[in-house]
Amino acid sequence: MFDFVEDFAQLGKYIDMPIQSYSSGMKARLAFGVSMAIDFDYYLIDEVIAVGDSAFKRKCRIMLGDRRKRSTVILISHSNNLLKEFCDVGGVLHNGQLEFFSTVDEAIQTHEFNQSLL
What we know:
Oligomer: single chain
CATH topology of the largest domain: Rossmann fold
Helix content: 40-55%
Number of domains: 2
CATH class of the largest domain: Alpha Beta
């Protein structure tokens, strides 16, 4: 497991440093690497795919796409493209209420409408 995380997170020599010395991006890379090293039935992902350089983002997308084949992924993101790429249905949290939609496009339209009211 350590070898997988070390290879995936690409923290280099920092892998052995105290976590409190990590930047927020390094912590996110480590956390995502640990999460992907374990086979879960469900993954809750919050914007972590947007962390790092383009090569790391691509690696995250590939890994997450692979996990979707055998697990459920719940993705929280402000990136419409990311949501469309990884989600089949959508939900919008507005005024403390979560409303589900049968398509991601419906959820995005509702979110954008709600934002226009602010």
